[in-house]
């Protein structure tokens, strides 16, 4: 195994270093601590194999192809560090639970969860689909009734991916993925793809797997949206504790993303008559994601009415609260379409073509124009 390079006396900057955890040792051992310089041949001075030769492929710290885990110990400034994606993204959690916003972390990564894992936002008990144990990369391990996927249990040598058990056909599909580990590295992504996506294609390459071709779309934790090899700035970053929601509307052909249950935009259109699977991927060692919601509904008049109600009452905690509806009907709607009634869709307003829904806020709607009733005449 190549040893960390020794930094020369001409190096400048603040003392930084790598932390290495051998498989046989449960302790974090700081190695190669010293000064860094922008003139170094590697973006990560002292990295294994970086002595005058650059880094191994495009790996980030914690993703090296060695029998152990290497993590860069960077200079902390508030909630961020100087190393960019070499350290976890913090401050983007759905909740304020302890351990969800820590900037410093140990190379074993499981230290990020102290005590009981956070269960905020995990109210659902029924799931339309879970992760598919038969369609996944070898560097993955499932738990929590196949709802939680763990990537690269010891160390990472590439990109691992997995898809859901159900092909998403006609109708409305909504699911939420919770980032249950530190989020860092080359990429950790949430998205969709067809059955043509090869989940093992990049098992020895660090890359953004989802969105490298025309068969998939992927939202990176960096906020970039990937498709056909192109990437565009789509949102702010997300990190440990973030909940990423995905709404696939096959009726209108749209793909919409949410972060912490707030809409962040429509990522794709014209997706009618296509079949997709929910997918996630990661290059980061000891990373994990969990399905906390997976729902499906037909595009019925009932769905469109609930969707429209949510648009008209975006700031209401309970969309049906205060409406003169029978209690039994309210409960039935919550049981069947609760995800629609709780969805923050203020940025996502698809044009409803059929069935037709009247816009109650329009100047020509029955609710706003003057009453023009006429008495019926008997002939």
UniProtKB/TrEMBL annotation:
Residues 300-333 form the SOCS box domain. Residues 356-379 are annotated as: Disordered. One of its GO terms (biological process) is proteasome-mediated ubiquitin-dependent protein catabolic process. Pfam families: SPRY (PF00622). InterPro entries: B30.2/SPRY, B30.2/SPRY_sf, ConA-like_dom_sf, FBXO45-Fsn/SPSB_families, SOCS_box, SPRY_dom, SPRY_SPSB3. Transmembrane segments: none annotated. Residues 109-298 form the B30.2/SPRY domain. The keyword Lipid metabolism does not apply. The keyword 4Fe-4S does not apply. Keywords: Nucleus, Ubl conjugation pathway. It is found in: Nucleus. Pathway: Protein modification; protein ubiquitination. CDD domains: SPRY_SOCS3. Gene3D superfamilies: 2.60.120.920. GO terms for cellular component: nucleus; SCF ubiquitin ligase complex. Its main location: nucleus. Substrate-recognition component of the ECS(SPSB3) complex, composed of SPSB3, CUL5, ELOB, ELOC and RNF7/RBX2. Interacts with MET. Substrate-recognition component of a cullin-5-RING E3 ubiquitin-protein ligase complex (ECS complex, also named CRL5 complex), which mediates the ubiquitination and subsequent proteasomal degradation of target proteins, such as CGAS and SNAI1. The ECS(SPSB3) complex catalyzes 'Lys-48'-linked ubiquitination of nuclear CGAS in cycling cells, leading to its degradation. Recognizes and binds nucleosome-bound CGAS: ubiquitination and degradation of nuclear CGAS during G1 and G2 phases is required to promote low intranuclear CGAS abundance before the next mitotic cycle. Belongs to the SPSB family. This is SPRY domain-containing SOCS box protein 3. It comes from Heterocephalus glaber.
